[in-house]
Amino acid sequence: MNTTFNINNLVRANIKALKPYSSARDEFKGTADVFLDANENPFGELNRYPDPQQSKIKEKLSTIKSVETNQIFIGNGSDEVIDLAFRIFCEPGKDKVLTFTPTYGMYDVSANINNIEVIKQPLINDFQINLNQLQPYLDFEDVKIIFICSPNNPTGNTINTDDIEYILENFNGIVIVDEAYIDFSSQASFIKNINKYNNLIVSQTFSKAWGLAGVRVGVAYASEAIIALYNRVKPPYNVSTLNQEVVLERLNNQFEVSKNIETILSERTKLKDALNQLDIVKKIYPTDANFLLVEVDNADRIYQYLIDKKVIIRNRNTQVENCIRITVGTNQENKKLIEALKNI
Ligand code: PMP
Predict the structure, then answer these.
(1) Predicted ipTM of the assembly
(2) Which reactions is this enzyme annotated as catalysing (predicted)?
(3) N or C: which end of the chain has fewer CB within 10 A?
């Protein structure tokens, strides 16, 4: 437990005074027969506003992840989890956040939109955190959030658990551990630590292993106090009825999700082996995610060549020189990529 951490010192002044949005329907206890409170249309199937608390999803996740329902926030993708953190904890034009680069681009985008400066610390030695270099920033009062992406995008590796725990114990701000790719990883999730560290937010998503990127549903797990702050600032109806239903259905079909993860992991091995046979490939970094960071002799040329073959990979934004990032696709898709690269 980080004993010097005090959430009240961290919350933006205007957020402290806010109450969560609550409708007449939320305040009503019991089962109503007639709904004339929200100016909805009485006809149709999707005529009612969605459940603003997403109660059914939270109940299910509470069982699966062994947390309380009031330790869960459901967002419009985990990008909303990130954006709302800026709005809760960072005073525009004044506060700062810290990221470890190369990493997920949205931390920067959200910071820019919210007028927050980003301090960037390069990852070292196969993309791990340099704690010595980080040390002075842990005491900076205007650094409000540290983002740790594990497994990290675009490098694919997980961040050492001991280093994450060191930061949680020694930083008086919020630590967001972004676990968008955790279900592909052999490393345990940090969710089990939300009762131990009151400055921890674990972010997960239905977009990757759960296969629902089009649905836009992400999740934050944190202390009840932090989740209460999210509930104060979130748009009341941030997850549509249809999206809630699709997520619930997927949560009731975990077997299929596990099967898909296994297939992706076995395809990842095959793809890696096939890439290793190619002369253009210099190095494939170890990965715990559903993508590979690959060093090649000329990233721009390979990217453009593949575009002409109607295959898209990631080139710019990997932020690692001469590296491309390749998502693991179906067996057929991966074969198409390899065949194209053989003929380059
Ligand atoms: N975090 C990381 C590390 C990601 O790579 C992504 C998506 N590329 C996200 C979060 C955003 O996920 P979502 O679709 O839930 O907004």
Answers:
(1) 0.99
(2) L-histidinol phosphate + 2-oxoglutarate = 3-(imidazol-4-yl)-2-oxopropyl phosphate + L-glutamate
(3) N
